[in-house]
Fold each of these.
Amino acid sequence: MKLSRPNWSNGLGILGIHLGALLIFLPGMFTWSGLAVAAVLAYVTGAMGVTLNYHRTLTHRSLRMVKPLEYLTAIFGALALQGDPITWVATHRIHHAHSDRKGDPHTVRRGLTWAHILWLFRTNKYVPSPEEKRRYCPDLYADKFYVVSGYLHVPLQLLLAVGLFALGGWSWVVMGIFLRLVFTYHTTWLVNSASHAVGYRTYRTTDRSTNSWWVALVSFGEGWHNNHHAFPFSARHGMAWWEIDLTWWHIKVLRTLRMVDRIRVPSIEMRERLRVGIRRPSRVG
């Protein structure tokens, strides 16, 4: 049986980052240049790193990037400080395997606060063990880059902080590290919590996933979560023309530039088969 205990290092780290973000209220800490740096880094680490690389490319293999771009965006994902690629991917693959059931690390059935943040540091026996990481991520363990990157996400963050301090002083550190991390944390966590609780459902799934337009706007398209759980393999999450999916737009641009291929999306027939309100044909015989 897998033993579990509170993850105090995660809890203290999350608390420290949130307290660090409050430093923007000190005189001289809020600057417009610092805000611009935070916005750019939030886009690079959140949209390109977590959403495009960690989620749609590595976890679900919804598309294939040219290797230099894949590795670069994986570094961007590491700078989001949500865990190394293998841990992030293993956790999300387990979530899909047991979504909103026993075994889901951040099931909304234990409450919105659990799904949003508490699962990260409270006692949680469903976070992946080293053995489970190997079982769920054999593809990433076969790539030495991802094995080595498991030790680099914290040093990379410290290196970024040093660079920001050299270029813009403490204001850039506070806004480019702490404020930016708080924003990217909560936009990611909202997908786990709000997008399993509020919104509408277009497709039949066995979980509580929903489509939430406001979560989609702040998470670069991840808020179309019912669509995603219906078709986890899909590189496109916003299925309707009005469901804005910024990451899908990125993918289309990269396809034009011949930097991605093997892009997977569900067919119209697949979508209609799972659409809410559409009856499945009765079996004959």
Amino acid sequence: MTESLRQHIIQGLDKNIRLDGRKKDDYRKVWIEYNVSNSAEGSARVHCGPTDILAGVKMGIEKPYDDTPDRGNLMVNAELIPMSNPEFEVGPPSDWSIEVARITDRGIRESKALEQKTLCIKAGESVWSVMVDVIPVNDAGNLLDMAGLGALAALGVSKYPGKKENGKVDYEKHTDKKLQLACKPIPVTVWKIGKHLVVDPLTEEEKVAEARLTITTIEDGTIVALQKGGETPLTVEEIDEMVGMAIGVAKTLRALLE
């Protein structure tokens, strides 16, 4: 069945037509809703066609890591729930959920988008810890890109919670102080199916792809993170084309952010 689907998809791509009628470099309609959670410090809901992602930010006060005593902590978690995709299972994080979280984390961390020094309360003793949770409501393909976009959208509207007299966090109060973001790293994954390169894949296209490359770029086109998936190698020419496609798509996605 998978091979028959693969051949059917490739035959369409030979004519630059995908299963849903798009061209190889076409993205589905993407839109973002902000502050969808009252309990999060910042949140966003990202839609890409029927793919639907929730991202939320929680902040707490913790001890800094020993190697970064004057910097706040950043953690990204992806919770892939069965409701969003029948192939997802309850229990420990799957390899796919770990990869989604790591790619999202790496783009934010390597771009230095989050000003972690501004999260320091007292060096070596206490810092703000920023925790980003990504949860798909419906996975209809392109989870990697939408997780990164959702995380960045939620961070962009996040505000510090209040503090009690004893120094503990007061989650009942929200301040007007926003998290500082130095740039907007946008991940775009380009998938290889046969000899063809596509963006924003459907679930069916993901299943038959031989390789993928996630390219995270910032506003000036600088690449801040790369992650390859799949066993099939990529040529230098293919990587060049993938990077060009990713930079172009990233500009359009970045324009959607507040």
Amino acid sequence: MSYIDRIIKSFTVNSAAKILSIVLAIFLFAFHNLNMLKTKIFASELQIEGLSELVIASAIPESVSVKLRGDSDAIASVSASDIIAYIDLSEYYEKGTYRVPIQIIKGGATLDIEPLEITVEPFDIKLQLDKTVSKNVRILPNIIGAPAPGYGLISGSVTPDQATIEGPSSLMDSIAFIETEPLDISGRYSDFSLLLALVRPGQFFTILSGLTVEYSAKISEADIEKEFTGIHVSAANLNGNFTAKIVPESGSVKLRGNYDSVERFVPNSDTLFVDCSGIATEGSYNLPVNVKLAPPLTETYYGPESVTVTIERR
């Protein structure tokens, strides 16, 4: 038997067992290599390509989850910037609702890694495409806080008072105005003017006109109201031969005026009074109550409106 015959015979004897051994060895080798692969997951910004005349009119994720599977040392050097995740909208020409697949482009460190598995989650996204329209809307200042005590915001205006916005036609009817950035007027006590940035009314809209407006405000002392109680009702112009007993003997008054005048007010003996100048004999009288105030204070309410006055000789 020649040398070649002996080699052939060695392969054919118990061939089934030998084939099984080879298959098992290949499987074990592949399984070992598979176990050596590691996984890396990171978020990748979702880019939008091919959008022309239509606009997106529904919420979509800003990023997607990208999973890499490969040699642990190799994928360790991969960063989020090496994978581009995007949706291509260049083939969509009519408004409607679509489910668009998310695609990826390998770059950077991923180009030299083999084997490398790349999966993205979610696989696709559902979005709504709509035609874009524009319109003019009012601009309203977003005022927060209050002026200094005793002062009020008399008036405020923005220039210009309208802006042009662009967005999906299906959502445009819901936008009647746009606001400025918040402006805190806490503690202010004088007129002022400044520039304020405009705030987009939503992620699907764009402001086509200027992005800032001038806001002018007038602030001055404001009238306030405050009630004072327990004020003694006095008998004015009473004949010196008589004494007067008043029931009820005290009342209240609500004052209106600028902050300083109201806060500094102190009731005196004739703030609330009854006029006894016409009384010449003893007895009980029902007399109207009068209020005496110094400008610029005025009363908005006082009580009681009348009292019972009992007159007796001394």
Amino acid sequence: MNIRIIPKLDIKGPNLVKGVHLEGLRVLGKPWWFAKYYYEQGADELIYMDAVASLYDRNSILEFVRQTSKEIFIPITVGGGLRTITDIREALRAGADKVSINTAAIKSPNLISEAANRFGSSTIVVGIEAQKQMDGSYEAFMENGREPTGKDVFAWAKQVEELGAGEIFLTSIGQEGTGKGYDIELTRRVAESVSIPVIAVGGAGTPEHVHDVISKGKADAVSMASMLHYNFIEHCDINKEDFCEEGNIIFLQSGKTSYRMNQASIGDIKRHLLENAVSCRPTA
């Protein structure tokens, strides 16, 4: 089975944003620029995530989905602020192939089974935001990593599968946005505890990190953001005048297009995987 490489696009208002540990969001550009570029580079899927939907009790991401689905022909997953069956239905009607739910699933686990029964398990992805605790355990968080739940990550992952989810979107809060590599232990333990695919998220800084979470962490798919986004900014011209609507654009205005972590394109990642005998869909 081919390993999937999935760019993650975090949305706030009209802009693509990125932070560290799911906090300190900075505007990087317009989501459409990045989505189109990643599609042309050979991304296997895309994930749109409204970074503040749960906090502000809103869902404003669907217009991006409608635009993207008309011109990009790979699977699109949408998450953030999906609280009801109606929300899920609207996301699918807008052009999403799958939806990702986290906060709503924790507050009402039966939503997972109801959604899976109505739309099919392959459509329902459950996001698990995991934070390692001082005693070595992992606790699941919600509200984009802001609120602890008291749930053990591994027990919750098993329950998610039993309720009918088709995939788990597993984010390591501690590694997210750092570029220091994925949490291999977390990913491996979740992957070994369930039979559904696990998408590893949080920490990619080099193609080697991607290979490690596949070979050692047993991830079925790998998602990343900063490593790809900063590579895009480094190599593509961005019009700073497009950002009058919302967000912290100091980074873009500074002209500092380089970033402290290593950068890589989707082509770089896939070439490294193929060179190390990891099956993935080659880029054009």
